[in-house]
Automatic annotation (TrEMBL):
Keywords: Leucine-rich repeat, Repeat. Pfam families: LRR_4, LRR_8. InterPro entries: Leu-rich_rpt (IPR001611), Leu-rich_rpt_4 (IPR025875), Leu-rich_rpt_typical-subtyp (IPR003591), LRR_dom_sf (IPR032675), LRR_domain-containing (IPR050216). PANTHER family: LEUCINE-RICH REPEAT-CONTAINING PROTEIN 2, PTHR48051. This is Leucine-rich repeat-containing protein 2. SUPFAM superfamilies: L domain-like. GO terms for cellular component: cytoplasm.
């Protein structure tokens, strides 16, 4: 018996497939319309937009206002123009930083400064970060033209007394190192405007001699072990920004109103139970951030919406984790966490400054996203 072969008219097969194609195209169109109206598609569009902005180095404030992402075409054009301007500015800044007056060093293969550095006493700026360098040499006193000492995230355990010879020093950043004290000779740098000692974890006091820093407008001593506001800080008459968050403060001094120029005061992650009425005398204070978990008393005027002061009371929700690392690993992980928290709060505070009012509550969410 032979094989049975079924023969169709080609027109019948063609009509069948045309019908299936039409149905598939109709389904695709319907699915596209559904996705267009879907919130998930909107979120995807926003994240793609945010990823592109981050890739181009566009600041968050340019496209995100009060938590909402503006993905409009006109905004894209504006951001593109601003980005070109910013890139031009960064290019100029990069050229400036690479000039013959600037010394830069980074990388964990560096355990000490190069010997040739001591011959370059004409330098005005040092930018040294993420190295294993532990000691700043005493010959730093030879750099009389020094204006900026930017030394974050190294292994520096002490600063030499000779740093006090740098009479032209404007900025000193020794954040996230291993300092346990600050030399009193630093008080001789009377032109110092910015001092950042944050994230050293072990600092408990600042020498009284730093009272001489009358030009200081920015002081950051967060993420250490201060139990009170240093007396020398209260005598910095030009101080505008003070960050003493994440320390061991239980109260504030009654003469805190000596800081008449203070504009930003960061106190969160301490154990303050009350805020003194002297804070109301700080007429230029525009931002006050505290942790409200332990607060039982505060001047009601701080919460008055008619004043220019933005008062933020953060409610922490600590989670106790069982630690199984050894001592050194625990310290390093703590340092990294403090650095992350600081970057988060920096972005949060910048956003607060752009808002007309303070949000009624804030929830901090930590997550990772692979773009």
């Amino acid at each position: 018996m032979g094989h049975k072969v079924v023969v169709f008219d080609i027109s019948v097969v063609r009509a069948l497939w045309e019908t299936r194609v039409k149905k598939h195209k109709a389904w695709q169109k319907k699915e596209a319309e559904r996705l267009e109206k879907s919130a998930l598609e909107k979120i995807k569009e926003e994240w793609n937009f945010v990823a592109e902005c981050r890739r181009k180095g566009i600041p968050q404030a340019a496209y995100c206002k009060n938590g909402f992402v503006d993905t409009g075409v006109r905004l894209l054009d504006k951001i593109a123009r601003n980005s070109l301007t910013r890139q031009s500015s960064l290019s100029k800044e990069g050229h400036k930083r690479s000039s013959e007056f600037v010394f830069e060093l980074s990388g964990e293969h560096w355990k000490e400064l190069p010997d040739s550095l001591k011959e370059q006493t004409h330098l005005k700026e040092w930018h040294i970060s993420n190295t294993l360098i532990q000691i700043i040499p005493t010959y730093i006193e030879l750099f009389r033209a020094m204006r900026i000492l930017d030394l974050p995230k190294n292994q520096i355990s002490r600063l030499p007394a000779e740093i006090g010879r740098l009479k032209n020093l404007k900025e000193l950043n020794v954040s996230f190192n291993h300092l346990k004290s600050i030399p009193p000779e630093l008080g001789d740098c009377e032109n110092l405007e910015r001092l950042d000692c944050s994230g050293n974890l072990e600092l408990t006091e600042l020498p009284f001699e730093l009272s001489n820093l009358k030009q200081a407008s920015f002081v950051d001593i967060s993420a250490n072990k201060f139990s009170s506001v240093p007396v020398c800080v209260l005598r910095m008459s030009n101080l505008q920004w003070l960050d003493i968050s994440n320390n061991n403060l239980n109260d504030l001094p009654q003469d805190i109103d000596r800081l008449e120029e203070l504009q930003t005061f960061l106190l969160y992650k301490n154990k303050l139970t009350y805020l003194p009425y002297a804070l109301l005398n700080l007429k230029k204070l525009t931002l006050l951030v505290v942790s409200g978990d332990h607060l039982v008393e505060l001047p009601t005027a701080l919460c008055d919406s008619s004043t220019p002061l933005k008062f933020v009371s953060l409610m922490d929700n600590p989670i106790e984790n069982t630690q199984c690392q050894d001592g050194d690993e625990l310290i390093e992980s703590e340092r990294d966490r403090q650095h992350f928290d600081k970057e988060f709060m920096k972005a949060y505070i910048e956003d607060l400054k752009e808002r007309e009012s303070v949000p009624s509550y804030t929830t901090k969410v930590s997550f990772s996203l692979q773009l």
